[in-house]
Automatic annotation (TrEMBL):
Residues 1013-1040 have a biased composition (Basic and acidic residues). It comes from Ambispora gerdemannii. Keywords: Nucleus, Transcription, Transcription regulation. The lineage of its organism: Eukaryota, Fungi, Fungi incertae sedis, Mucoromycota, Glomeromycotina. GO terms for biological process: transcription initiation at RNA polymerase II promoter. It is found in: Nucleus. Belongs to the TAF2 family. Residues 686-976 form the Transcription initiation factor TFIID subunit 2 TPR repeats domain. It comes from the Eukaryota. Residues 1005-1121 are annotated as: Disordered. Residues 1058-1069 have a biased composition (Low complexity). GO terms for cellular component: transcription factor TFIID complex. The keyword Magnesium does not apply. This is Transcription initiation factor TFIID subunit 2. The keyword Transcription regulation applies.
């Protein structure tokens, strides 16, 4: 994270008074020219000075803009572009002498700036249609917003400070061209829309239609959250129905012929035209912000009847191409990627889209309307927005999904929180790495989740939702000064909610917000029969401790917390079937706690006849008492036990396991309410975990039990997991985790030889649920994804089977059979992601890594897979060509093909599968879908193909000048290790980290680039100019010759999977002999055609950019020439 050592963050008042003036209003009047990629116009800044001001100049921010004239109250004024090359890009304007007396006495002035912007390198992105590269694109443009400040000044002269907010009047003029009716979508409310006929240029008699749009934003907003999008958008209104009169209008804008996809994404294609985004708006305004829901004891009628509020009069969503980030939140609008839209038959993308759209809506309150007082308070804004969205997502997806997500996020944070500063970092700079922003958002949300649990324990019913409602109410009633919030203000709100526990709140903030790290608990228990007490030995460490030493971490400025204190809930399920909760007060790093045991305990001899009779009577009594209770897990009859290889607890070995009858307690749960963000090591016997899995209905208890049974593999554990997998009452994610855990129950452990029980049970489960069987023969049944839980479980079982790592040839044959006989003809949903899972699982079955096998198991030696590899490669090529002719959604099949081929090339020997040096380079060219290109780029870097000078030159050129902002961002992230987007105000759930990033990649690329600059002179031309010259020099006759030779080259790119193993070996040897010169030559030939790949098939309802086969052949022909 960039830091500014020794700097002190200032509040808004200090910042404004040190400057001498404040901005009250700004009006913008610009004309957009999509033909020349330029804008021109003027902007007027209304400025009010303080009485004690002594400055005779005014400064504002501007970069890239060519300022022609500056007027102060209509009088021309001198201006100096100070530090134009620096990041701030400030322009200093001298106030004319006739206006100085008024200015010194605290008067108002208007500074009008006339400027022009031509072919900007940042701040604004143009998407143009190209007949060869992108024929399905439509010309449009939109503003780009970087993390924190700095983007608005790239296209608009303004005071680009996050806390400098004012009202806005925005006027845009755009010309229609190429039969497109252009519109502009911007902040606020559109108060006027008109069209005029104007000449193309002063000397021409031809006219063009110019559309004029005027927007008004009465809510004070910073320039950072001002933006627009211009293009031939189609307008779709999200209607509420009869009860939406008091709610702001929600509108969607998309490019031509894509409104059907937009409607299907938000559910507007249904009869009632109702959307989940309308539900979210009503939830945030009505259900959540209603004080009666959080403060039932209030009697003031004005509070009980006061409705919720949305900061703006309307909310707009604009979907564009080649975005810098999936979602960018601006005042009253969001600019989103078109890839978030999906047809109604797509399942997997629907979840991610709903999460991102709800989070973007919540950001309108926290992140746009309410801002952090200091830069060190950024974590609070990110966390409040994410937590705000989480409340509705819990209602939308259910509590089980929320608990599962929280648990997974806690595991991620504990792994990430190593060597990081606390959430409140006083040394934080103005520019944030997006990885640190994601971490602050993720950990901050979990901290608020823990704080909510602790506040509710104090009998304060609303918890954190009530605190957030109080903050929003204060903002609505102008009691929140300048709508700025800090960590201290939030602390005061929490202490006001629980005045009797002020010390607890302050101690919590000091440990989790002002200190860094997460606790790592090691908990052991023991039953003291003499005292009838259950004893717990608890020790803790910090994840930020260096070799277990806190002092070394303090010396590095990390500020880890030495000891985390607070209450921890322990639930003991005793032998009488009752559960007893106990609260352990953690106060030290190593301490002992005792809790009472309630069930009467009598020491008796276990081997007597009397004991056995009592045990049998107890079993009968337990069966009678549990007749009406819920016992989870699929019931396997005695006749099916041999077929399923089912082993109950206590059947295989005559020990004291059984069903834990007569044991001291059934199971123990530590941190039952998930109120601690921590790593926890707590061990109990495996049969107790099995009892917890089958008797505890809490999804967190089930998840913990599944994880531990996977780490304690046995025949009994695999059988219990099998029952979980087959029982539809379990949450689908728990069933998927059970399948992953069953894959570990193979091989030899410290206790016994499990053989392949987990693998056999997984295969048997898949055949039972999703195949048509006849004895030993089987064929996959036709896909039916109407039950979404079964859909996810089906994918989970396939992936678990590929991780079993036993009988590899059988696994490959099984997955190949699923690919060959996959039938989706009668399915109402798409199988794109399911096929992609099968392809990824096929590659996973061949790789040699054993990361999913536990350490105490012996790995089986892989069998000869050469024959299976030939068949697998043929199947992969078949699906690749199928995706070229009939593109899947976002080309997920091709992405899975590239990842699988890359994994095979990296894992298998060169004799089995030689590296194809041209395959990934072709897929990395512009014209393919960004997901395809990113997969290819990751493969290029992972296979060390980038080490040649020409490859380094190619990667640098793509990172700097590629038309796709997504590719630029991700490639820069790989090379430099830094992420420049998305904006820090957008809480995103999905993790986008690239796992193939190399720690020394940036230094190696820089070294190769330096050598390249020494040996190859560009002769004064930049990269863009050279590429344009090469493109313009291509003769048309060359294209004609290429088309005539297309048929002869088709045979050269056919799959080579049918060749024999000996031929592959010889080809591999020949490639080694020729050395690296040929490799450099191939990469060098690829570079001139980076921007000119063949035109892809146009799919109005999808974002498919995969070219057709003959056009792909034309590209390869150019490379070979």
């Amino acid at each position: 994270m960039p830091k500014t050592q020794g700097t002190k963050t200032r509040s808004y008042e200090e910042y404004a008074r040190s400057r001498g003036f404040k901005l009250t209003h700004q009006s913008v009047d610009i004309e957009i020219d999509l033909c020349t990629f330029s804008i021109k116009g003027s902007t007027t800044l209304s400025i009010s000075s303080y009485k004690e001001v002594s400055n005779e100049t005014v400064r504002f921010n501007s970069r890239q803009c060519k300022i022609s004239e500056v007027q102060v109250n209509g009088t021309g004024s001198e201006f100096i572009i100070a530090a134009e090359q620096a990041y701030h890009g400030e322009v200093e304007v001298k106030i004319p002498e006739e206006h100085l007396p008024k200015w010194v006495k605290g008067g108002n002035i208007e500074v009008k700036v006339y400027y022009k912007l031509e072919k900007p390198q940042g701040g604004i992105h143009y998407v143009q249609r190209d007949a060869r590269i992108a024929p399905h694109f439509h010309p449009h443009m939109y503003t780009i917003h970087q993390p924190t400040i700095g983007a608005a000044r790239l296209w608009l002269p303004s005071i680009d400070h996050l806390l400098e907010r004012c009202t806005w009047d925005l006027k845009f003029t755009v010309s229609n061209f190429a039969k497109y009716n252009m519109i502009v979508v911007s902040n606020g409310v559109c108060i006027e829309e008109s069209s005029v006929e104007a000449p193309i240029d002063p000397s021409s008699k031809e006219t063009v239609t110019k559309n004029i749009f005027k927007y008004k934003l009465d809510v004070p907003t910073s320039a950072h959250h001002i933006g627009f999008a211009a293009g031939p958008f189609e307008h779709v209104v999200f209607e509420y129905g009869d009860n939406g009169k008091n709610h702001p209008e929600i509108s969607g804008y998309c490019l031509p012929r894509r409104s059907a996809v937009l409607k299907s994404t938000f559910g507007l294609d249904l009869a009632d035209r109702w959307s989940f985004l309308n539900d979210a708006m009503k939830f945030f305004m009505d259900e959540y912000q209603n004080f009666h829901n959080h403060f039932p004891n209030l009697t003031e009628p004005q509070l009980l009847k006061s409705p919720g509020f949305f900061p703006y009069q309307s909310y707009k969503l604009v979907f564009v191409e080649n975005t810098f980030a999936p979602v960018t939140s601006l005042a009253s609008m969001s600019i989103c990627s078109f890839d978030l839209l999906h047809p109604p038959e797509i399942i997997d993308q629907a979840y991610d889209t709903r999460v991102r759209m709800v989070q973007a809506l919540a950001t309108q309150w926290f992140g746009v309307f309410i801002l952090p007082l200091f830069m060190s308070d950024v974590w609070l804004i990110l966390s409040l927005a994410n937590y705000f969205a989480l409340l509705f997502l819990t209602k939308l997806f259910g509590k089980n999904d929320m608990k599962y997500r929280i648990k997974k996020d806690m595991e991620r944070v504990c792994q990430m929180d190593v060597g990081r500063p606390p959430l409140v970092d006083r040394n934080i700079g103005n520019q944030l790495d997006n990885k640190d922003v994601d971490f602050m958002r993720l950990k901050g949300t979990l901290v608020l989740y823990m704080l909510d649990i602790r506040i509710r324990r104090c009998a304060y019913y609303p918890g954190i939702p009530g605190v957030i409602a109080s903050i929003l109410r204060a903002s609505q009633n102008n009691r929140l000064k300048f709508n700025l919030i800090s960590t201290r203000i939030f602390t005061d709100e929490c202490t006001a909610a629980v005045p009797e526990r002020v010390d607890m709140i302050k101690r919590f903030f000091q440990q989790w917000i002002y200190s860094s790290g997460c606790p790592k608990f090691d908990i052991k228990y023991n039953f003291n029969r003499k005292k009838m007490m259950v004893e717990f030995q608890i020790s803790q460490q910090n994840t930020n401790a260096i070799d277990g030493k806190i002092g070394d971490a303090f010396a590095c400025g990390i500020k880890p917390m030495p000891v985390f204190t607070g209450p921890m809930i322990v639930c003991v399920h005793e032998a009488d079937g009752k559960s007893y909760e106990h609260m352990l007060n953690i106060q030290g790093s190593n301490e002992k706690h005792q809790v009472p045991y309630h069930t009467k305990y009598k020491r008796i001899r276990r081997n007597t006849k009397r004991f056995k009779e009592k045990q049998a009577a107890a079993k009968e009594e337990m069966k009678a008492s549990n007749a009406g209770s819920v016992m989870w897990g699929y019931k396997i009859s005695d006749s099916e036990k041999y077929e399923w290889e089912f082993t109950a607890w206590g059947e295989e070995v005559d020990d004291e396991k059984g069903n834990s009858t007569g044991e001291t307690f059934e199971w123990i749960r530590v941190n039952e309410d998930n109120g601690w963000l921590c790593e926890m090591q707590f061990n109990q016997p495996d049969y107790m975990w099995a009892t917890q899995l089958q008797k505890d209905i809490d999804i967190l208890a089930q998840y913990e039990a599944v994880q531990m049974l996977g780490n304690l593999p046995s025949r009994e554990a695999s059988s219990t997991l099998l029952q979980t997998l087959l029982d539809e009452r379990y949450y689908c994610k728990v069933r998927m985790e059970a399948a992953y855990a069953m894959a570990k129950c193979v091989g030899r452990t410290n206790r016994s030889d499990l053989g392949s029980i987990g693998f056999n049970q997984l295969i048997k489960t898949f055949k039972k649920l999703y195949c048509i069987t006849n004895g030993e023969k089987y064929v996959p049944d036709a896909n039916n994804f109407s039950n979404l839980s079964d859909y996810f479980v089906k994918k989970g079982i396939v992936w678990a089977i590929s991780n079993a790592r036993h009988h590899q040839a059988e696994i490959v044959e099984f997955i190949l059979k699923l690919l060959r006989y996959n039938d989706n003809t009668e399915n109402e949903f798409s199988d794109n992601y399911y096929v992609a899972t099968l392809i990824s699982a096929l590659g996973n079955a061949f790789t040699s890594d054993r990361h999913n096998i536990s350490d105490n198991q012996t790995e089986y030696i892989s069998e000869d897979i050469s024959d299976s590899l030939e068949e697998a490669l043929q199947e992969l090529e078949r699906y690749r060509y199928r995706d070229m002719m009939f593109p899947t959604y976002r080309n997920v099949t091709t992405v899975a093909y590239i990842d699988t081929k890359h994994k095979l090339m990296k894992s298998l020997s060169n004799e089995l599968l030689p590296e194809d040096k041209n395959l990934f380079l072709i897929f990395s060219l512009y014209g393919h879908h960004p997901d395809v290109r990113l997969a290819a780029i990751r493969a290029i870097i992972s296979l060390d193909q980038w080490k040649t000078k020409s490859a380094v030159k190619y990667l640098k050129e793509v990172a700097m000048t590629d038309p796709s902002l997504t590719i630029r961002r991700q490639l820069q992230r790989i090379i430099t290790g830094k992420d420049l987007g998305p904006p820090c105000w957008i809480p995103s759930y999905k993790d986008e980290d690239i796992t193939l990033t190399r720690p020394h990649l940036h230094a190696e690329v820089k070294q190769q680039s330096t050598e390249l600059q020494r040996t190859e002179s560009m002769k004064g031309e930049n990269v863009v100019t050279e590429r344009k010259r090469k493109y313009e020099g291509v003769d048309k006759t060359e294209n004609k010759k290429s088309k005539r030779q297309t048929s002869t080259v088709d045979s050269q790119i056919q799959p080579e999977a049918s060749t024999s193993k000996t031929n592959k070996s010889s080809s591999g040897k020949s490639s080694k002999k020729k050395g690296g010169k040929k490799k450099e030559a191939v990469v060098q030939e690829v570079q001139p055609v980076v921007q000119t790949p063949p035109a892809p098939i146009e799919q109005p309802t999808q974002s498919a950019e995969t070219p057709q086969l003959p056009q792909r052949t034309l590209l390869i022909l150019k490379m070979k020439k």
